[in-house]
Amino acid sequence: MYIRILIFFIVNFIVFYFYLVISSYGYNVYRSNFMSLLNQESYDVIRVLIDSGYIKDRIDLKGSNISLRYSLKKYPSIYQGSNNLFNFLSIVYNYPYLDYYYSENKYYINFEDISDVLVLSNDFIEYKNRKYRGIMRIIFKDHKYYLINYVSLEDYLKAVVPSEMPYTWSIEALKAQAIAARTYAIKMMLTRRSKNEIFDVYSTVLDQAYYGIDYEKDTTNLAVDSTKGMILVFNNEPIWALYHSNCGGFTIDGYLPFAKTVSKEDYYLSSVKCYYPGNTWVSKISLYEIKDLLKKYTKREVYSINSISVNSFKTTFIYQTVNNTFVNYSIYNWELRKLLNYRIKSPFIDKVSIEKDWVIFEGKGNGHGVGMCQYGANYMAKAGYSYVQILNHYYPNSVLINLTDYFSKK
Ligand SMILES: [Zn+2]
């Protein structure tokens, strides 16, 4: 009798002990860390869209402790790199409604009614040969999947800065870049969260290039760490910290090409002189393509182009149409650049000429020309200017503050 009671207690103790081990590993460690990451109120964590597509595609994610493979067949399988049950449980704890079972060294999950999956790893998660910090979340919506990386803002920046500026450049220019990138990220977080969107930034040049851990460099890590939490504000709000490779001797007023998002009163994007002369370029576009564009946008026949000229950010075409009449059509260079799929490197066009079947554009600069000129920033840094002076120059009237101060005033 006593032995039975003793065995009962021992068995209960063992069950309870295992419950504690599982809950402390799978629940406390992962849940406390990662559930706080999922809290969208936190601006310490940014949600980066890594990829999206139709759900017939397969998503392969790898890591040193977990490897999640999934496909949308009836019983897709999850393969564990380490066969470690606890790692797998950590997913299930956050999403207890997952219907799963274990068989022949594979974990099977029925994703049929799943709209959301989290993938956790102790160090990094690999996707399409790129390694990412933080956690991955897969959201299923309207027959599409969205692979979203939840990562700390500062870790995100450590991968962004070396993708947006050569890591060999002067440290003061790299610091200016880190602050511009952080400010841009915060602006996107505020904007997209106010619209209840499922991610904050694209991982491409649509927002800022973010290619993961392998891109991190010591110099750019230092630039991010030494400016931790610093952003630029104007009228107490984070600015649209636009930047570009190099301007053509001066930057362009932001409201001109970006009328939808930048107003004339956003003085921090005012045109400023730049000490870097701007890289020159030549682009050849076929005359046939230009005629086609004009026909499409002016809705008139284009018989022959008589002249093309350029004057203060506007290109003017004079062409002959039906009944021997002439049409005079002007377009802003940033619009023309968009229509030509950015084959014109910048809006700074100095000269246009027609040679046989080609239109030759010549100009200087690279990029939209608004905000910080990156080559100009490096030029200033090499001349001894600090990152504060560089930012004050390219974003006039803006103020440097810390994120915690910004959010404490909200
Ligand atoms: Zn410049």
Structure description:
The chain has 410 residues and is α+β, with helices and mostly antiparallel strands. A five-stranded mixed sheet has the order 7-10-11-1-12. Helix 1 (2-37) packs across helix 2. It has ten helices and 23 strands. The termini are far apart. It has helices at 2-37, 85-94, 153-164, 171-194, 218-225, 287-298, 333-339, 374-382, 387-394, 403-409, and strands spanning 45-54, 59-61, 68-70, 77-78, 99-103, 106-110, 116-119, 125-127, 130-132, 135-141, 144-152, 201-202, 230-234, 237-238, 243-244, 280-286, 304-311, 314-320, 326-332, 349-355, 358-364, 372-373, 399-402. It is globular. 32% of the residues lie in helices and 28% in strands. It folds into three domains: 45-152, no CATH class; 153-276 and 369-409, no CATH class; 280-364, no CATH class. Bound molecules: zinc ion. Zinc ion is lined by residues 246-247, 274, 276, 278, 373, 375-376.
Distance between the termini: 67 Å
Bound molecules: zinc ion
User: Into which percent range does the helicity of residues fall?
Assistant: 25-40%
Could you report the average pLDDT, rounded to the nearest whole number? 83
Q: How many DSSP-defined strands?
A: 23
* Oligomer type: single chain
The low-confidence runs, each spanning 5 or more residues with pLDDT under 50, are: 13-32, 69-99
Helix segment tally:
10
The gyration radius over C-alpha positions equals 28 Å
The gross shape turns out to be globular
Helix-strand category: alpha+beta
The largest β sheet comes out as: 5 strands, mixed
Going across the major beta sheet, what is the strand order? 7-10-11-1-12
